[in-house]
């Protein structure tokens, strides 16, 4: 295994607070993400983990706090802009394009890199065709990497759950992101599938140097593969640090195991 | 036995991304085209070409347009009739304002004008979805038809509100519109345009824009997160869909009927075309043609069938039976295969791969 070089901070979240009406979902959360690290967000159900990811890729706009991305304070942005900044994500409940094949789903992940005009696509000649073939080659690399060759032409609606998760990861990878947000990539999987998925996450991080922000409930996986872990509970930040630090934090133990009153 | 891709290896992505990667499919399409271009015009009577094949082709084109919008981009629309009317009246105004203009240019520009109108009525699609959008497009249907009836400018102040196509030639002096055009010329002209536009549509839906449309249809929030901009993507679908519907309307008014009033494109037309794509198959080029064939040809078959079998049934009874059988068949098909005739065709092909073996 190559020695990963964890670099400088590329995403810095300061004092983020998010409310929906009277409901306070995130309360004064601050943490940073360094380049090429695997950063996990954990916490019980309803802790605000998915909301945190939605804040990072611009679906939710926090009322307070600021987000710096690559050293610059980010203004409020539209949802489709996140992809342009190199932020890709997968979803807790699979959000694939069900009517399309695996190949088309992953090809769609490269939409921002396709520049040919609608007219050129209409005649499917010259630039559009060249582009299709060029991107197909890239997509085939991803298909090889994720070992999904056999299902490349299957409509994703027909695939089993574990495979759909893998295709969704492929679609996110197709954008060649700088930061990959994974929302419970291993939920509902058996041990073997979890092992596969963990290996893919580690390989992506290792081979492409992609920064990974991971939400996961399987503590074994989180503690094994993360560089640093942030713990949320009811929108509050309980702890932040290496897996060992977090594991021994009294607040975290109380939140997960309960406290006697 | 005959339909099998075994042994057909692709050595390049180009070959694998061809429209029809399987050899038998290519033969099949070439055979269909050969029949459509060569056999049908020689063996069919003028009645068949003019009153069955022409409306079938033109309505299939309109269905193709609606299928881009509803089947591929997922935007439900009931404005098809209005857009066809826009195409018809745009073509009429263009042909009368610039009498020397070639019919292909007239069709192209009337399609473009309709695309502009489509974009205008597509803007609400950013905010409203599903049935609510259908209601919004219904407004466009009624508004457009009302507009063409209300303002005399569109009909060049004809007292009856009817527009009549001037005679126009496609190549040399081969007329395709007006009273002196032969039915065969009209048929071949329409067939060529429909074939060309079907090919262009297929190219679009297998390219990036088509994938963006389907992504918006299947899961709009995920589409947005991977960088697809909603408004331009939806408006492109509205524009291209209206472009096709506009050309279909212009062909209907100019080539098929020769003279037309706005009422020919009322809301019933919109529903007819929506039924075509539902029965034919949403999100399928083939589906638009199968659906149009079903809706156009079946009633003709039903009204003629008793006569062919030597049964002597009164005409009014036939038309009642026709409506009943037609309705029952629609329900039957939707229960057996909710994804339409195109899916049935797909299933047939999958079965054919194994035939005559069980697996």
Structure description:
The complex is a heterodimer of chains A (261) and B (359). Chain A has ten helices and ten strands. By secondary structure, chain A is α/β, with parallel strands linked by helices. Chain A folds into two domains: 1-86 and 177-261, P-loop containing nucleotide triphosphate hydrolases (Rossmann fold); 101-174, no CATH class. In chain A, the strands form two sheets. A six-stranded mixed β-sheet of chain A has the order 6-7-8-3-9-10, sandwiched between helices. A four-stranded antiparallel β-sheet of chain A has the order 2-1-4-5, covered by helices on one side. In chain A, a hairpin with a 2-residue loop joins β9 (228-233) and β10. In chain A, α3 (102-108) packs parallel to α6. Chain A starts with 8 loop residues before the first strand and ends with a helix. Chain B is an all-alpha fold and 359 residues long. Chain B has a domain at 44-265. Helices cover 70% and strands 1% of the residues of chain B. Chain B has 14 helices and two strands. Chain B has helices at 13-16, 23-43, 46-72, 80-97, 103-122, 130-150, 183-205, 208-218, 220-225, 230-257, 267-280, 285-308, 315-336, 341-354; strands spanning 163-164, 259-260. Chain B has a two-stranded antiparallel sheet with strand order 1-2. In chain B, α3 (46-72) runs parallel beside α7 (183-205) and α8 (208-218) crosses α10. Chain B is globular. Chains A and B meet through α2, α3, α4 and α5 of A and α1, α7, α8, α9 and α10 of B.
